Amino acid sequence: MPSSLALSLPVSVMRPSPVPRVPEGSGWQHGAKLDGFRAVAAWLPDRLHLHSRTGRRFTEFPELLALREALPAGTVLDGEICAVSAEGRMDFDALQRTAAYRRAHGIALSYTVFDLLADGEDCRPLPLTDRWARLTALLDSQSMVRPVLATDDREQALALARDLAPMGVEGIVSRRWTSRYDPRLSRGWVKWRTAESQDATVVGVVGPVRRPWAVQVRLGGTVVTTSPRLAPADAVRVGQRLEGHVGERLADAGGQPVHAVTKEVVAEVRRTGGRHSTTRFVRLRPTAE
């Protein structure tokens, strides 16, 4: 452990538990869930040390070396490395490209902070209220590292998540103000992913025609396959609705046949944001809609 740090590296990080909805009531901070690489940043006397949530040292982001001058030695932060296009949208794929590629395409890297782990002393035993107050005071003195966008107001957080989804915000991470930074506290941090339903034209069925495992829909000019597998009742309803309107076999998907749909049918689907996006089947729209 470097003598200037009050904790050992690598640091075990908090991992939010998934929840179906953003927590209600007081006592929570709601912050933007970003689409990047989780990273602990430690300011050492002679360098900036970055490691992933699994402890792997990051060496592929030379653009962030300038952050070494931003904060004093002994500071340890938990945050997210994001690649941001000239239009302000997060680009996860660009994180996996070279610095030269990012420069050539006008993509910048940012480090956005969730939490303060050390500021000369180990802050992890402190409640989030104290850690956040120290963090905002620390970051207020410079402009290179910024805290994550966060609020106490659940409805405001939901509105921000919806508004910023096109920019790559995946949802909301909610944290109890009273919680310590302790990865053993599985419900101290929870995450909710943005998911909005929309209508899409059904263009194919995957698997047995009478009880398909999935449907293929056209979204924004792209054909996608719904996931996870259709519930048994939904599979029966889809098969009945499409009876007599399934055409030729087009291809295979995951070892299952795909057949074209020859009738105008619209499905309601729900798509999650971010790099782990999925398109979930909700229902078929009634023909009168």
TrEMBL record:
Residues 32-191 form the ATP-dependent DNA ligase family profile domain. The keyword DNA repair applies. It comes from the Bacteria. This is ATP-dependent DNA ligase. It comes from Streptomyces candidus. Coiled coil: none annotated. The keyword DNA damage applies. InterPro entries: DNA_ligase_ATP-dep_cent, NAD_dep_DNA_ligaseB. Keywords: DNA damage, DNA repair, DNA replication, Ligase. GO terms for molecular function: ATP binding; DNA ligase (ATP) activity. One of its GO terms (biological process) is DNA recombination. PANTHER family: DNA LIGASE, DNA LIGASE B.
